[in-house]
Amino acid sequence: MIEIKNVTKSFSSRRTIDHLNLTIPHGKIVGFLGPNGAGKSTTIKMMTGILPIDEGTITLNGYDIEKQPMEAKKTFGLVPDHPDMFLRLKGMEYLNFIGDIFNIPSDIRKERIERVTKQFSIYTALNDYIQTYSHGMRQKIIVTGVLLHDPPIWILDEPLTGLDPKSSYLLKEMLREHAEKGNTVFFSSHGLEVVEQLVDEVAIINHGKLLFYGTLQELREQNPSNDSLEEVFLEMTNDA
Questions:
Q1: What is the DSSP string of 121-173?
Q2: The pTM is what?
Q3: Domain span(s) for CATH 3.40.50.300 in the chain
Q4: Phi, psi of 211, rounded to the nearest 5 degrees
Q5: pLDDT tens-digit profile of 139-188?
Q6: What single DSSP character describes residue 90?
Q7: Hey, what long-range contacts does 191-196 have (CB within 8 A, 24 or more apart)?
Q8: Homologous superfamily of 24-52+60-75+153-239 in CATH?
């Protein structure tokens, strides 16, 4: 479970997140929607301890991300919007680095690395440097790192960007399976069709404020004049 309580974040004199309250339960896939600059990535960076919180609190499975950072960070895996990290490491070096951080036993580590990287078709590239990978391959190696330590909470910022259709389908199946086991999946996306196909609930944010949180059915019932999620989203986030 992710609990965001009265969270505010400002940069210079501009308030990016404005008293945001949001609770993401266990066993759900929740899509996080908003136009560019709405505050999605800033929220995710505060959730994961990358950015400090100006006001309010964020807890992950009961651990405060600022007061109990080590405990909180053990509960989640993050796929950032730009997977350009650890470029001077080889793929296998990166995965072993993740395995060492989370104390993954060697036999479990070996099995998970081989299984997931073969599914993502990057197994033969594990001895290559990540800087030689395409964007999609970098995305896959980061996702593999998340799956390696199998945290209860998955936080993903535009996770399907750059993935080929097969890998995109595979990741969506993994997200469903993770939630069906009673875990939490929270992901941001601009792909409204993907969100419509995949999520149990959706949160819509604009100018740092939560506009809606609930099921797609509830969203449609509140906006009966619109036929599609795209139309609802555009009307809700239309500044005019």
A1: T-GGGTTSBGGGS-HHHHHHHHHHHHHHH--SEEEEESTTTT--HHHHHHHHH
A2: 0.90
A3: 24-52+60-75+153-239
A4: -95, -30
A5: 999 999 999 988 999 999 888 877 888 988 998 999 999 999 999 999 99
A6: B
A7: 191/160, 192/33, 192/229, 192/230, 192/233, 194/160, 195/31, 195/33, 195/229, 196/229
A8: P-loop containing nucleotide triphosphate hydrolases (3.40.50.300)
